[in-house]
Design goal:
The structure is a homodimer of 273-residue chains. Chain A contains 13 helices and 10 strands.
Chain lengths: 273, 273
Amino acid sequence: MTFTEILRSVQQKQNSLLCVGLDTDPAKVPAVFRNAPDGMVEFNRRIIEVTADLVCAYKLNLAFYECRGEAGWGMLRRTLRHVPAGIVTIGDGKRGDIGNTSAMYAKALREDLGFGACTVNPYMGEDSVTPFLSAPEHGVFILAVTSNPGARDFQYLKVNGKPLYERVITRVKRWDAQKNCGLVVGATRPAELKRVRVLAPEMPFLIPGVGAQGGDLRQAVRHGCTKAGDLAVVNASRSVIYASAGEDFADAARKNALQLRDEMNRYREVYFR
Amino acid sequence: MTFTEILRSVQQKQNSLLCVGLDTDPAKVPAVFRNAPDGMVEFNRRIIEVTADLVCAYKLNLAFYECRGEAGWGMLRRTLRHVPAGIVTIGDGKRGDIGNTSAMYAKALREDLGFGACTVNPYMGEDSVTPFLSAPEHGVFILAVTSNPGARDFQYLKVNGKPLYERVITRVKRWDAQKNCGLVVGATRPAELKRVRVLAPEMPFLIPGVGAQGGDLRQAVRHGCTKAGDLAVVNASRSVIYASAGEDFADAARKNALQLRDEMNRYREVYFR
């Protein structure tokens, strides 16, 4: 199966477009986890336990683990073991380097850690991206239009009258022989999301930026989905995992995740049924 | 001191523009290190021992360590301990993410691992780069024109009649309030190197691509240096550390490093004295 097929089937089975971002920060988790042995992993395990029936994917931003060195790398690995089979795991590292080096990064994410998908930065071009694409069942979300303010510095620059991110998309489509490419498009950019869905009607989109970053959930679903109402992977991190810093953190996380899933499913009913 | 001042002083003291890339691959080191306890670090230690008087910097590409997980992260850390004080260390990870996440990456590189400089990918714009710039003594080499074939896919695209990489440079100059920004410009691109030096006359350049990638050493020095004949950091990885796979690997590495340093210093005499 290609990644696109896998994602479609997981979203159908789970009836969810929601991806929960496990960007776990010791400063923000409930106090009980802060100094507990393996507290970060235990926090993640609890979040996964109460949200696993509500999501199509978990996304782990590598920076939040990498900043703790060897220990953090171990946390990443042990967290992944708690994700039930049949849910997509996304290693969000935005890597990219010359060919032989990108191959090492792909190996780290796919073989060593066992992620089902990853994110890649396109600035260095084809030979920096293609090593990530060698396994059709492994998804590769390439940065197109990001959710942050700095997106405007380069991604929107006009190249032959069209923004740079459109050129990125044209190239990605060319590299997508195995149907395992996806695109990252921020929920904070609904007009661009709409345009990108026209350009890449059948590609998986990873859509960050709802919740703490302020992106509009309705537009993310409306413009992010394919005509079949799927393949948008809408990520929420802080708004779910830090829904409460108290003892009710798990209930609060589940409540917020449930609300996000259901709200998105309502929009799917409105726009795609 | 700013990173630019530090680099200038190290290059003067060491009388060298050479950076050795410790991109250590178990498949390529002499057999004796392959299965030895901490063999990769021991190999790196030996390379550092025989080249430390010949270089201004060591560059460690994180992918080569990251692909070994926790163990690799430990190798990175222990390798850095063997680098004598007064030599620049560059964590080559080409990271870049939204602001709060880039801050985590910066913390990993600067505080946790203790690198003196790093490389950053500019695609996500200002708020993805500036968290790396907060310590003036820490250098940040931002990708401008890379040495790989894929560089042409996006970096050369015309924006208002000028290549995208020129826009990157214009922006980097604006972000460089603390004089700790640098640029990555491939040695495989001498014409662009010349142009970039005109655009950024006093900025440190990290110049990969000589040796295995085929870049021209003479042009790297001629066009990569400032008018004072410095601030070009010319990286060689495979051509030094794998100079021989036999028992003479250390002698061969030193011989190649010495030759590179001396050849570069001859070009400095020719073009800058």
